[in-house]
Write a structure and sequence with these properties.
128 residues, alpha+beta, five-stranded mixed sheet
Length: 128
Amino acid sequence: MRVTSDFFVSAFVRKAFATGGFASVSRKGAAEAGAVFISVDRMDGTLDLYGPAPQAMFMDQPQGRLFEKVLSSVDQEAVTARLAREARMDPDYWLVEVEARDGAVDLPLAEEDSPAPGGEDPNAFFKF
């Protein structure tokens, strides 16, 4: 069973603070199933944006959330424009902003060559 968006966001923010990082929720979406976007501020004027990976990418549907990098090393205007397009399609999305100089963020990614943190299980994100 997939956790709700509000639970996932809460756990993600707590995990960021527990590891000495900073994260804040700048937009709250639908508590049960709103799409979650993660904006990573690289502290050099550029940002990365992660969003939900399309479920059609997977033969076997994962139970947890998987993300993909939507934008890489762009300015704030590009992120704002991308999220404005998202809001027109689905206004119930979440936005979490993270500060990470190296751009590293601990998310379960849907890349073939990069397994989710903790192994192949996308639910491993919540295993500490």
